[in-house]
Amino acid sequence: MKFELAKSTFIEPLQRVVNIIEKRQTLPILSHVLIQCSESGLVCVGTDQEIELSARISADQLNISRVGAVTVPGRKLLDIVRHLPQEARITCEADSDRFILRSQRFESQLATLPANEFPWIDLAVIAEEGVKVSSAGLKNLLSRTMFAMAQQDVRYFFNGMLFEFESKLLRCVATNGQRLAIAEQALNEEPGLSRPILPRKGVVELARLLDGAGDDVLLQFTPQHVQVEIGADRFVSKLIDAEYPDYSKAIPQGGDRFFSCSRSALKDALVRTAVLSNEVYKNVRLSLSSGQLEIFTNNPQQEQAIEQITVDYASEPLEIGFNIHFLIEALSVMSGDEVRVELSSPSSPCLLRDSEDSTAQYVISPMVL
To answer: What is the CATH number of the domain that holds 68?
Structure first.
């Protein structure tokens, strides 16, 4: 295998693939990137056996002398390419058990492993008909909901995101049991798919890949995997084998108290107040009275912060406690100038709605004051 290309052509696909690789490996080959060179171009592949990314460079962007395949230590290769001059031309060659990279007066030799040992994710038959989704729309869905996923919950279905397809609608749902985020995107077709759960790392990497993507992406599912075609890249992730709980029961209904205010004013006040919140419990007390919201927090060092902001509220006074960071994160992903918060009692969850996005809902459970 031998090929030549510009650093600017190589660096971005290589970076995307290396992002998939875990820093600590159980198998040496999982730290490697598979490089396949054929007459149609170059393909770089990285995997952690849960997710996999293939990034393609077309043949018209490089000069191919010999075709072949080899695996190369991914992070070492990326570090070398990253530190070459921006205008550099790179020649790569696989020779015996070495991958030789040359650029001007520089030469490196990296140890390789056989390409036939690379642990591809074994895909079952992918449905020929997938569902096309606007890349910007899908990115927006993930951005508005992914913050609510759990990280290491024993209820492992919470460590991911539900993709719910319903009558020309894609709904993304994420929760950690104390907060819930829901957002929707209209589709041009009815895919008739089930309720797949994409794991947390898959969601994070997919969101990263969607930055700057083209008009549409193609989603295809098997019972165990999702495959996403994003431009010249192919992203594959295992799905979480579980049934997502009925999240609709967690959405409060019939809240008889509500207030609305400037989203940015509320968020900024919470951010300032959070500096002095308890580092363990991260609690904040919201005290509502006619036309005013008082935000209060303190910590074991006897430090405290308090701020009042003007709100549209005309019901009976109410005090309720929350995790302050849950409120900040929900407000941060909204886009409207105004937020509406629906409440019923100090022991019931609140429902946050974005004034400019009626499809998004955020539920946060209260804390004991």
So the answer is: 3.10.150.10
